[in-house]
Design brief:
Structural Genomics Hypothetical 15.5 Kd Protein In mrcA-pckA Intergenic Region, Chain A, about 300 residues, four-stranded antiparallel beta sheet, alpha+beta
Length: about 300
């Protein structure tokens, strides 16, 4: 089977393989070049060459074969369950665990653990590789994540994600001493123009992104903050704080390119989830304690300042 994409060039001059890699999440630039060589990318029903430079307004049709599915096996991996009933489960994901299988991480993921714990009672909307997964957090981000046990619950919770009524609150340690006690970062996010694995603040092919924050404590050279997502874009908190000059401590992708305070990987914890339960229609709030790596880091930062 193949997925068909229609891509409209917004600007002139870019190479077609670069445009496709930016517009289609599941392919890289080299994969785009291979599709072009195979005749899977057409302009006005004719295959194009990989060195084609686009003109604004050109409409390309791209046929992308679906990746071969591999069986995801259940694995007896311990889970810290913050809430569970017949409709959903909220898991406190440890730092370093990948949410679902992906290249380089075929097993040992949260999905493998959920399949063992929940058996067949996970929604199928996420597909074979992401059963039940309503939203994701990065590998080095710890904290709360919801999985749905049936398709109705999945759709109900996904709708709350879409209209921003599912509230997600995080805590983080950022580099530098922030002066304002609270604020809003309102800056659109899209794929980085030169590295599709990264996100960036950009007006081009972007989506609006809003992060609310408040300062919890200040230290010498660092600040402990609470963040609430109004939107939920990929790497949103990490990119937003880097954008205002306060990258997350330990974030060697968007921040300082060295380990600090013994931490590699961002200091970020998904602490609280608030949502309407799909069956009871009651407001649910689930909170997790700060994990040991986070509290130990705070103790290493020294005395609070101001």
């Amino acid at each position: 089977m193949t997925n068909t994409y229609t891509i409209i060039a917004q600007e002139s001059g870019e190479r077609i393989d670069a445009l496709l890699a930016q517009e289609i999440d599941e392919i890289t630039r080299s994969q785009a070049a291979r599709l072009i060589n195979e005749g899977a990318v057409t302009l006005r029903c004719s295959p194009i060459k990989k060195n084609h430079r686009v003109t604004a307004g050109e409409v390309f049709v791209v046929e992308v074969p679906e990746p071969e599915e591999t069986e995801i096996v259940a694995e007896n991996i311990p889970l810290e369950i913050a809430f569970e009933d017949d409709d959903l489960i909220v898991v406190n994901k440890p730092r370093g665990m990948v949410v679902h299988p992906a290249p380089g991480h075929p097993n040992g993921t949260l999905v493998n653990a959920l399949l063992w714990h929940c058996g067949d009672s996970l929604s199928g909307i996420g597909g074979e590789k992401r059963p039940g997964i309503v939203h994701r957090i990065d590998m080095d981000t710890s904290g709360l994540l919801i999985a749905a046990k049936d398709d109705y619950a999945h759709r109900f919770l996904s709708a709350q994600l879409a209209d921003h009524s599912l509230s997600r609150t995080y805590e983080a340690v950022v580099c530098g001493r922030m002066h304002d006690d609270e604020g809003i970062i309102d800056a659109p996010l899209g794929r980085h123009p030169n590295d599709r694995k990264r996100m960036a603040v950009t007006e081009r092919n972007s989506k609006n992104a809003v992060t609310h924050y408040e300062v919890l404590a200040r230290y010498d050279g660092y600040t402990h903050v609470r963040c609430r997502l109004e939107t939920g874009r990929t790497h949103q908190i990490r990119v937003h704080f880097a954008y205002i000059g306060h990258p997350l401590l330990g974030d060697m992708v968007y921040g300082r390119k060295r380990a600090e305070k013994g931490l590699e990987g961002q200091c970020l914890h998904a602490r609280t989830l608030r949502f309407i339960h799909p069956c009871t229609n009651e407001l649910c709030e689930v909170t997790s304690e700060l994990p040991e790596y986070f509290t130990q880091l705070l103790s290493r930062l020294g005395e609070k300042i101001g």
